[in-house]
Amino acid sequence: MASIGITAKIPFDRLQENQPMKTDIKDMPILASQFCGMQFDTPLVLLSGCVGFGEEYTRVQGFSNRDVGAVCLKGTTLQPRLGNPLHRLAETPMGMLNSIGLQNPGAEHVVNNILPALDFSETRFIANVSGSTIEEYVTVTRLFDDSPIDAIELNISCPNVKEGGMVFGNDPLMSARVVAACRAVTKKPIITKLSPNQTDIAENARLCLESGSDAFAVINTLMGMAIDTENRTPIIGANQGGLSGAAIKPIALLKVHQVYQVCRHHNIPIIGQGGIMNAEDAIEFMIAGAAAIGVGTALFYDPLVCTKINAGISDYLKQHNIVEISQLIGTLTIN
Amino acid sequence: MHLESASNIKNTHRGTLLVEDAEILSHESLPGQQHVLRLKSPGIARRAQAGQFAHISCGPELAMRRPLSIMRVDKNAGWIEFLYKVFGAGTKLLTQRSVGELISLIGPIGNPFSAHTEKPRTLLIGGGVGIPPMVFLVDSLKQQKINNYKPFVIMGSEVPFPFSPRPSQFIIPGMPDAAIGAMPLMEDWGIPSRLASRQGYPGCFEGYVTDLARCWLNALSRQQQNEVEIFACGPHPMLAAVAKMAVEYSLPCQVSLEEFMACAVGGCAGCVVEVKTSNGPAMKRVCVDGPVFDANTVFPEESR
Fold first, then answer.
1. Which of A172, A180, A327, B85 has a CA 20 to 30 Å removed from the CA of A20?
2. What's the pTM?
3. How far apart are CA B127 and CA B120, in angstroms?
4. Would an 8 Å CB–CB cutoff place B21 in contact with chain A?
């Protein structure tokens, strides 16, 4: 049963199902929007690495992929990867570290066995492409190009693999080369996931944009460490991990603001992500310039958080007489 | 190697986990920083099976919930019960929650224990916070009267047991003289049990749970041994020792594992364990691929 929060506008095709309307639809703001030519039913995007290959959270009663605009699938490489040793998680103040290490069954398995099982009528599915060489990014992108996937997210910012990943993401010229090479083999929308672990994220965005990126995901996790004081060893098996959760929200917000200064002139949308836990956080990111809102770690605490964020955004829009979310994006007035 | 393929699970798994705001009915503090928490959670109580767990929100300050094994349920009264020991920030915070407060639960999660009717002599071994799922399993086995399970329960603890041991009414062949103490709940249920500890607690066997289990197994005839299946939950070294023992006696053995957990619904692959499969090593998620695994797949070293 789809549920989008009682005050949100429900798209027409869903009205025809069995949704009782509790409020007058004429007064409702529109949560749906276009993102790189894709129809997002709500501005929320479930983030790569948090929701497996799109079906895992549907275990939870009351959760529906229809409550989000898109779902980013688990980071996928050409060959299968076992991922990193234990522990892969450590809780930190208002957040957590993870180092999964891109555990995945390989691109061919994903395309041949997983994508056919997904229900593309529920939401948009975005592949997350990772690699250790430019050739690997290209090969995986090509595999997804020849699939029903809606868009491709280039993960040039994974902090948890030794080779590739962030090595590309922290060097703007390398980032741009990955984007250009993948751009050449697909017409599907390319979303580049930017690393916060670099000096000038806006310059990176500018080069990627010139190389053909259609959108950006801002930000990936920040590098961090936690230490077991009894054993005097890092808690994370791979020693370091990516920090996520409420703790990183102010950093993510600033990075979105910075990247938006580049993107605004080119009509390039941003998925703002990093520590978004509730509707107010989401609205902050939209004001800073995010056209869509990534939800990841918040799901771990509350698997039903998406309906609450949708409802909260809708309430805010209504209170401020905003008809659709596009009127809110990037409306920050700088002091 | 694979995250579970979506094609295998679709349509059967949807909507199987509930999110419930559960009222605390009782919260009892026991020696050894152990606590028994009973919650009103009718949906999870109705669905829960032995070996499953719930993912508990200890407080909004923490980004991660905590997985706790379900110890008992009353489907009719709609409550579920947990035993936990204070281990870190989450469980410490949990101790401060009092009767009447609401706690958010996700559950019941994971694959339950699966007993086989051709192996009616079930040997249940619980160590420390591995005791709770064994209590649930006994309760479940004794209700399946038609299958005539004959459970024997061994519990181990290096802090005082979360109950007052009582001299057992059952005479068990092979038991050392000192091992007379039993868990009162098991006695009331008519299920034989024995206790092991290296702390010299009265009535308890002084040694490891596996030492006591060997005494029990050695007193069985060959034919009786063929009817034994082992179920275990506890610290990793204990499970490794149980797995080794199971191989020695050629007995099937299921173990319940734990690991740091973020989503607990299979989404993040944070809680994996390396498992031996016919296709080579694989990283399986403790939350939804487990927490119950065949011992020989997670302890291949002990199987050699």
1. A327
2. 0.92
3. 22
4. no
